[in-house]
Amino acid sequence: MKETVNGMGCSLFVEDAILYSMSGAFPRWSWLKMFFALILLALAAGVIWFAVQAARDYKLLMNTTPEQRALQQREAFFQGLITNDRLNPADTLSLIDPSAPTWGPSTAPITLVEFLDYDCPFCRESAPIVRQMLEKYPTRVRLIVRDFPVEELHPHAVTSAVAAHCAQDEGKYWSYHDQLYAHQDDSGDLRTEDDYLRYAVNAGLDATVFRSCFEARESEAKIQRDLALGVHLGVEGTPTFFLNGVRIPGVIPADTFNWLIPQFLQSASSTSTTVSP
User: Fold this and answer.
1) 71-271 classified as CATH 3.40.30.10
2) What span, in angstroms and rounded, lies between the C-alpha atoms of 260 and 258?
3) What are the backbone angles phi and psi of residue 259, rounded to the nearest 5°?
4) Which helix (H) or strand (E) holds 94?
């Protein structure tokens, strides 16, 4: 390949270059260099974008108070519950049992269903928190109690539930409910019928009526139905709450309750729906 001073010579040089490029030697290396250069440019652009986003997020973080950040986290938590843990309408209605122990009016815009085990320490821990919330919203929240005895961990869990239902028959459920939690550690696995009878007397029940009901164990079938329902609805331990059909497992701290209830009240108001029997 020769370069000449006349037009023909230049023309021949261009043609030779084209032929040379078609051979694949020079341009293949050039295209490879361009390819890697584009990759490097893309990586650099990605690093710059990430740095800009991180700087913006850091600036936002520095411009918010701890209270604002806590509120943002709770809002994200609430939206996650609404999105991921809400039951379908049929399952939500299945939570309502007119024969179950309740606290609060049936017209309340919020229905809180608790699956509990009377021998569970976490249920005992949760009880005063729930009671405080019910007293704060006496007409706005209804609590319904469903049984979920975990006999693998608490051998007397079903028996405790039977005793609680006997107390309910005499109109003394909540007093006996409190007695079971108050004496949860007294006897443990050695708890006897006399212990349950003693709790009944402390709660103001008729000892003879209570003993007859307790020995008959007629409520055991209902307790097993509650247990089966809980398993169907995804209950894996106690306590597990359903707040207008939204599943919330574990002990709910008081400050979380104080934040959640207004959120659900606002949601119920905007949709004009409540959970009804």
Assistant:
1) yes
2) 6
3) -90, -40
4) helix 89-94
d(C-alpha 166, C-alpha 215), whole Å: 10
Distances (CA, A) of 58 to 49, 50, 51, 53, 64: 14, 12, 10, 8, 10
Helix (H) / strand (E) containing 11:
helix 7-22
Length of the chain, please? 277
- Residue owning tokens 């299945």: 94
Determine if residue 251 is left, alpha or beta; phi over 0 gives left, psi from -120 to 50 gives alpha, anything else beta: beta
- Tell me the C-alpha distance between 269 and 277, whole Å: 19
The pair of structure tokens assigned to 162 is 């039977």
Contact indicator for 101, 116 with CB cutoff of 8 Å: no
Q: How far apart are CA 230 and CA 239, in angstroms?
A: 11
pLDDT in tens, 125-150: 999 999 999 999 999 999 999 999 99
pTM of the model: 0.73
Preceding peptide of 239 cis, ω within 30°: yes
For 90, 124, 242, 247, 271, the CA distances from 86, given in Å and listed in that order, are 11, 25, 9, 6, 15
Question: For 14, how many CA atoms within 13 A lie in the half-sphere containing its CB?
Answer: 6
Q: Could you state, in order of their start, the residue ranges of all structural domains in the chain?
A: 10-62, 71-271
What pLDDT digit, counting tens, does each position of 31-59 carry?
A: 777 777 788 888 888 788 777 776 676 66
